[in-house]
Amino acid sequence: xxxxxxxxxxxxxxxxxxxxxxxxxxxxxxxxxxxxxxxxxxxxxxxxxxxxxxxxxxxxxxxxxxxxxxxxxxxxxxxxxxxxxxxxxxxxxxxxxxxxxxxxxxxxxxxxxxxxxxxxxxxxxxxxxxxxxxxxxxxxxxxxxxxxxxxxxxxxxxxxxxxxxxxxxxxxxxxxxxxxxxxxxxxxxxxxxxxxxxxxxxxxxxxxxxxxxxxxxxxxxxxxxxxxxxxxxxxxxxxxxxxxxxxxxxxxxxxxxxxxxxxxxxxxxxxxxxxxxxxxxxxxxxxxxxxxxxxxxxxxxxxxxxxxxxxxxxxxxxxxxxxxxxxxxxxxxxxxxxxxxxxxxxxxxxxxxxxxxxxxxxxxxxxxxxxxxxxxxxxxxxxxxxxxxxxxxxxxxxxxxxxxxxxxxxxxxxxxxxxxxxxxxxxxxxxxxxxxxxxxxx
Length: 442
Ligand SMILES: Nc1ncnc2c1ncn2[C@@H]1O[C@H](COP(=O)(O)OP(=O)(O)O)[C@@H](O)[C@H]1O
Ligand SMILES: [Mg+2]
What we know:
Layout (H helix, E strand, L loop, with lengths): L4 E3 L2 E9 L3 E9 L5 E9 L7 H15 L9 E7 L2 E7 L3 E3 H12 L4 H20 L20 E4 L4 E3 L28 H4 L7 H16 L9 H9 L6 H4 L5 H10 L11 H15 L5 H27 L20 H10 L69 H22 L1
Antiparallel strand pairs: 1-2, 2-3, 3-4, 4-6, 5-6, 7-8, 8-9
Helix pairs in contact: 3-5, 3-9, 5-8, 8-9
The structure holds adenosine-5'-diphosphate (ADP) and magnesium ion (MG).
């Protein structure tokens, strides 16, 4: 039995995840008369706390998210600093990320039921539309854009509620930290063409990302993820989208039409708002007879992931009894990931050493990457090392001979090492000078 580590007024019970910028802890706050509440604490990584830009980004995330109170957005409750560490407190959301739902359902059932895919994305549309529309009490629009919509940033609870999280790189009016011109933020394989190109963005970039999530859930395939950053970048820039029904003929035509519209390269041809997308999706569901309400999602979650829910409950009560080890030991248990979080941390480290062996084949007729083959890295975020940090530079042109970009994360690629020709020229010059000197000396 261990005592949880005290952090301000909170007890840190278990480390849920470690991301590029922060650690996510399950924590408990206690009050009078036996009051206890589980919360999640997102704590900026120590190594980033010395960097003003990251601190501002973190503070912005909390400030932006705190303005949002909606059933489909994870609530932020507090922003603070303890022992020099910045942290925010959020509601604890028990469930699975959409990434986990996609991968596990594909493994267990061979697919994500179309009704579930549509229901999940419809709820995500609702949360994002609320954020897009959010204004100050005096009516000034906040112009919030999430910019990082991805299956890892959507949680489905066992009650069938979908919640959007991680406003870490959200754009908003009044944001303190600024994106430098030409910098790209976000997870590469869920970006829109305009985001990839570093162009100005509006809410329709989130519509595009929702289209990617829906495409992937319905086809059980990754849409833009390729073997290298450059290939992914090219695929997105061209908005290279195969017709969903060629990959899964069970997809209803109207659902396909929604996916295709959300994924238009030109933002003017997409749904103008996430609300429009939700409406179209719900209409398609009605005409296809797809039942994807919160009630249906809850039934699906319970029937497909009953074991996961029980496991989360078990881990949770263990954590509350302090039986999961101390925070100092950084025991990796994730009620969200049901014990798979150790992998997350390990893989985060391993990402720096990724080679082309780990990377994915291009989406093709038979080489299409599906979630079945992606299961080993269940909780691994799918960003390339170079794009792991929130702020990244535009990708370099592809190195002629290499498929994979193996630059350390956060370091802008130079587009290859110094060409051998320069070494050759330098060496020849030295030889020439020595020769001339020898001739003169003679
Ligand atoms: N409030 C929460 N409740 C439950 N799980 C959460 C919560 N916040 C984050 N997580 C888990 O931690 C992961 C990383 O959190 P996130 O805020 O997305 O951090 P990052 O900025 O590192 O991506 C999520 O994908 C989710 O699995
Ligand atoms: Mg995230």
